[in-house]
TrEMBL record:
<dbReference type="InterPro" id="IPR036264">
    <property type="entry name" value="Bact_exopeptidase_dim_dom"/>
</dbReference>
<feature type="binding site">
    <location>
        <position position="104"/>
    </location>
    <ligand>
        <name>Mn(2+)</name>
    </ligand>
</feature>
<keyword id="KW-0464">Manganese</keyword>
<protein>
    <submittedName>
        <fullName>Hippurate hydrolase</fullName>
    </submittedName>
</protein>
<feature type="binding site">
    <location>
        <position position="137"/>
    </location>
    <ligand>
        <name>Mn(2+)</name>
    </ligand>
</feature>
<feature type="binding site">
    <location>
        <position position="102"/>
    </location>
    <ligand>
        <name>Mn(2+)</name>
    </ligand>
</feature>
<keyword id="KW-0378">Hydrolase</keyword>
<feature type="domain" description="Peptidase M20 dimerisation">
    <location>
        <begin position="183"/>
        <end position="277"/>
    </location>
</feature>
<feature type="binding site">
    <location>
        <position position="358"/>
    </location>
    <ligand>
        <name>Mn(2+)</name>
    </ligand>
</feature>
<dbReference type="Pfam" id="PF01546">
    <property type="entry name" value="Peptidase_M20"/>
</dbReference>
<dbReference type="InterPro" id="IPR011650">
    <property type="entry name" value="Peptidase_M20_dimer"/>
</dbReference>
<dbReference type="GO" id="GO:0046872">
    <property type="term" value="F:metal ion binding"/>
</dbReference>
<dbReference type="InterPro" id="IPR002933">
    <property type="entry name" value="Peptidase_M20"/>
</dbReference>
<dbReference type="InterPro" id="IPR017439">
    <property type="entry name" value="Amidohydrolase"/>
</dbReference>
<feature type="binding site">
    <location>
        <position position="163"/>
    </location>
    <ligand>
        <name>Mn(2+)</name>
    </ligand>
</feature>
<dbReference type="GO" id="GO:0050118">
    <property type="term" value="F:N-acetyldiaminopimelate deacetylase activity"/>
</dbReference>
<dbReference type="Pfam" id="PF07687">
    <property type="entry name" value="M20_dimer"/>
</dbReference>
Length: 391
């Protein structure tokens, strides 16, 4: 597999960095140790470092040869998940309730590997912005960096990101032009009823019964309101109410997520959720509040940058290992918010192991670290070829 020899030569160092990050996971907006390590490595390699964007975000700036004026951003996420790790690896998490169960430690390491290689070779004409983003896991890290002026301070003509993929074979690279990952909302619904003794339900306005009724009604939105030729998901993932066997509580709460590949469908689902809640509130003579929050935009890969990824991947992993996805993923990714502003592409790299991300037994395969670093590096050398400003 023709990864870059120079990157292969320090693959062991990349593995050491990745495992160190894995042992010390930090969740969104708490990535202090992680961002310190990133900043120190970039500074060590002579890369200009900027800190504090979006809280704990870090941006490295590296200029190559020539004066083409072109600028490309490469992005990696840094945060872990608030969950336990159930592996017996020597480098497993040392922090209870914190686990790099999505492989962001690997993404950060890959981008560091790219940064080191490009700093040592500078075989490109233009400027690279290495974007290390906090809080990807539903906390709005991308939006926080953008709000802090990411693309005003570090303008980009195009942008690239990646993710590890246990559902692909080792070394496969997948790309999907167009809508590639769903937009997502999170919701909280509070039913304010009236409590009573469990033996005297007639004296209550039972929020538990109302919650079950509303939960069933919400499932009709996808089955009866959304065009069946379009995809949508409405999942209730939390139900909270009550504290005793013989007490009808006064309040019940539902929470969950909505996913879709169209903002129009997301708007439809939100409107129907509110309408159903209002109707059921009237029917049962209670108050129901509905809080729906736009968390992730639809991730849309541009055709031009998707073609770049596919072309570069053929050189890095070979034609047989380049996969054009036929279906988008219903999962979400807040790199989508950056792609709403800057044209770019987001791709996946497969690795050994079949345990999915966000599973307590998930394990990242360190052998893909040079592949990810080589992909990013070749994208830069392809899109910012040395000598381009003199052609």
């Amino acid at each position: 597999m023709p990864t870059i020899d120079r990157i292969d030569a320090f693959a062991d160092e990349l593995t050491a960095i990745r495992r160190d990050l894995h042992m010390h996971p930090e969740i969104g907006f708490e990535e202090v140790r992680t961002s310190n390590m990133v900043a120190e490595k970039l500074d060590e390699w002579g890369i200009e470092v900027h800190r504090g964007l979006g809280g704990t975000g870090v941006v490295g700036v590296l200029k190559g040869k020539g004066n083409s004026g072109r600028r490309i951003g490469l992005r990696a996420d840094m945060d872990a998940l608030p969950m336990e790790e159930h592996t017996n690896l020597p480098w497993r998490s040392t922090i209870p309730g914190r686990f790099h169960g999505c492989g962001h430690d690997g993404h950060t390491t890959m981008l560091l590997g790219t940064a080191r290689y490009l700093a040592e070779t500078r075989n490109f004409d233009g400027t690279v912005h290495f974007i290390f983003q906090p809080a990807e896991e539903g906390l709005g890290g991308a939006r926080a960096m953008i709000k802090d002026g990411l693309f005003q301070k570090f303008p980009c003509d195009e942008l690239y990101g990646l993710h590890n993929a246990p559902d692909l074979a080792h070394g496969e690279v997948a790309i999907l032009p167009g809508p590639a990952m769903a937009g997502a909302d999170f919701f909280d619904i509070t039913i304010s009823g009236y409590g009573a003794h469990g033996a005297m339900p007639e004296r209550s306005k039972d929020p538990v019964v109302i919650a079950m009724t509303l939960g069933q009604a919400l499932q009709t939105i996808v089955s009866r309101n959304v065009d069946p030729l379009h995809s949508a998901v409405l999942s209730i993932t939390q139900i909270h109410s009550g504290s005793a066997y013989n007490v009808i509580p006064g309040e019940a709460r539902l929470a969950g997520t909505v996913r879709a590949f169209s903002d129009d469908i997301r708007k439809l689902v939100r409107e129907r959720m509110r309408a159903l809640a209002a109707g059921i509130a009237a029917a049962f003579d209670v108050e129901i509040s509905v809080d729906i929050r736009d968390i992730f935009s639809v991730l849309v890969n541009q055709q031009e940058q998707s073609d770049v990824v596919a072309t570069v991947a053929r050189g890095v992993v070979g034609d047989a290992n380049v996969k054009l996805r036929e279906q988008p993923k219903m999962g979400s990714e807040d790199f989508a918010d950056m792609l709403q502003t800057i044209p770019g592409a987001y791709f996946w790299i497969g690795h050994d192991g079949d345990v999915p991300v966000h599973n307590p037994g998930y394990v990242l395969d360190d052998k893909i670290l040079p592949i990810g670093a080589s992909m990013f590096a070749r994208i830069i050398e392809t899109r910012l070829p040395a000598g381009a400003s003199h052609v």
